[in-house]
Amino acid sequence: MAGQEWSSAREIVEKVRAGTLTATRVAQHYLERIEQHDPHLHCFLDVRPETVLDQAKEVDARVERGDTDGALLGIPVAIKDNLCTTDHSTTCASQILQGYRSADDATVVRRIREAGGIVLGKTNLDEFAMGASTENSCAGPTSNPHDLKRVAGGSSGGSAAAVAAGLAPLALGSDTGGSVRQPASFCGVVGLRPSYGTVSRYGLIAFASSLDQVGPFALNVGDAAMLWEVVAGPDPRDSTCHPLANGDKSLPSDLSQLRVGVPREYHVDDVEKETRSVIQQCLSHLEERGATLVPVSLSLTEYSIPTYYLVVMSEASSNLSRFDGVRYGPRGRGGSTGEGHESHDLESLYRTTRTRFGEEVKRRIMLGTYALSAGYYDAYYKKALQVRHKIREEFEQAFEQADVLLGPTTPTPAFPIGEKSQDPLELYLCDVFTAGSALAGIPGISLPAGKSGDGLPIGAQIFGPRLSDRSLLVVAGEIEGCLGGGQTPVELNHGS
Question: Which active-site residues does the annotation give?
Answer without folding.
Answer: 80, 155, 179
